[in-house]
Amino acid sequence: MKYLSPFLFTVSVLVSSTALKAETLWIAAEGGVYRSELNEQSGELSVPELAAAFDSGSFLAIHPHLDVLYASYRDDSGAGYASLVPSGDAGRLQLQSVQRVSSGNAHLSVSENGRLLAGAHYGEGVNYVLELEADGAISDRWTRLVQSGSGPERPQTQARPHWVTFAKKDSLLHSVDLGTDEIWTYGVGKTANSVQLLHKVKFPAGTGPRHMALVPGSNTAYVSGELNLDVNTFFYDEQSGRFSPLQYISTVEDPFPDKQISLSEIQVHPNGRYVYTAVRGLDLIVTYSVDPQTGLLSLVERKDARVHWPRNFTVSASGKWLIVAGQRSHELRVFEIDPGSGELSPTESRIELQSPVCVRAWDRI
């Protein structure tokens, strides 16, 4: 474990005091977007139902104010972005709009004001920023942000943006680039063509940063290092949009030369006290506790994910359950979260679904 100088931080407690009886899960998998209900008392998942059919989609996002769900989108005609709205049939969604771009499989983020949609395109080395209409539909007004550079590892032959998010009341856009070992930070105005690069911050060579958990109301951010298997802790100065490294901590006990091992998702528990990340190949969920004064992490446990290739997971809004998607074992499983320690206990709740790649706990639509 390597530490750099600590900073004080505060965390907003996000857990609702009112436990939900059921919570809607949205899942991107082969064939489109699926819907399942999580029983908040038992942790049981209902059999997933196809809500919107298309060839495939890799990530989901939701409008902050409207009943509109966004998905990366691919069909016989090409790839891009889709907005989905309730169809009138219970649990079903219909296409509201589709915007084609040159590639699909993007990680998505919607601005807090609901005016912009951003997508990170790993294969193409670009981010797209698209304007949204008043009803949430995706417009044809967009800009293409090309990133450049490389790193020492085999997947780092080019820039590979893997994650984006808006910040500072939508005036900033952060893009985590696996290929260049950097976070690219852009300034954002009211339109898509207003976006301009401000600065970049570098990770240790070969980190392969994948996803970030930017904690609302705090000055701490956590990034999963897909290639070197580290979780990276940063002090985040929202005013300037700059990141300063605090800590690099490995998810595994010993170095593993097997290149089939990699990190995927990373999330902070709604109470801000625990951080979770997934290790593909070893098929683990790793839990860390967060020091409330410094934001630094301490290992709590490494738990068998009980799925093969945990591509994605989510923590329920209540903070009681963690749902993990096994892309290669074609299933989702549920763990109960100990509120006092953050430790995970497996349940018998399991559903089958072909190649799930994104699961989100939004009790909406």
How helix-rich are the residues, as a percent range?
under 10%
Q: Give the oligomeric state of the chains in this entry, treating copies of one chain as homo and distinct chains as hetero.
A: single chain
Q: How many individual β-strands? A: 29
- Rounded to the nearest angstrom, the radius of gyration is 19 Å
Largest sheet: 5 strands, antiparallel
Residues in β-strands, percent = over 45%
* CATH architectural name: 7 Propeller
Q: What do we call the CATH topology?
A: Methylamine Dehydrogenase, Chain H
Uncertain runs are 5-20
Q: Which structural class do you get from the secondary structure elements?
A: mainly beta
Name of the CATH first level? Mainly Beta
Distance between the ends: 43 Å
The gross shape turns out to be globular
Overall number of domains: 1
What is the N-to-C succession of helices and strands?
A: EEEEEEEEEEEEEEEEEEEEEEEEEEEEE
Mean pLDDT across the residues is 92
Say which CATH homologous superfamily is assigned. YVTN repeat-like/Quinoprotein amine dehydrogenase
| Spatial order of the strands forming the largest sheet | 1-20-19-18-17
Number of helices: 0
Keywords: Carbohydrate metabolism, Glucose metabolism, Signal
Protein name: Lactonase family protein
Organism: Pelagicoccus enzymogenes
Family: Belongs to the cycloisomerase 2 family.
Give a quick summary of the entry.
Belongs to the cycloisomerase 2 family. The protein is mainly β and 365 residues long.
Description:
By secondary structure, this protein is mostly beta strands. The chain has a single domain (2-22, 63-68, 102-353), classed as Methylamine Dehydrogenase, Chain H (7 Propeller), CATH 2.130.10. Helix content is 0%, strand content 53%. The protein is built from no helices and 29 strands. It has strands at residues 2-3, 22-29, 32-39, 49-53, 60-62, 69-75, 78-86, 93-101, 106-110, 116-121, 126-132, 138-146, 161-167, 172-177, 182-187, 196-202, 209-214, 220-225, 230-237, 242-250, 262-268, 274-280, 284-290, 297-304, 310-315, 321-326, 331-337, 344-352, 358-361. It has a five-stranded antiparallel beta sheet with strand order 1-20-19-18-17, with no helix packed on it. It has a four-stranded antiparallel beta sheet with strand order 4-3-2-29, with no helix packed on it. Strands 5-6-7-8 form a four-stranded antiparallel beta sheet, with no helix packed on it.
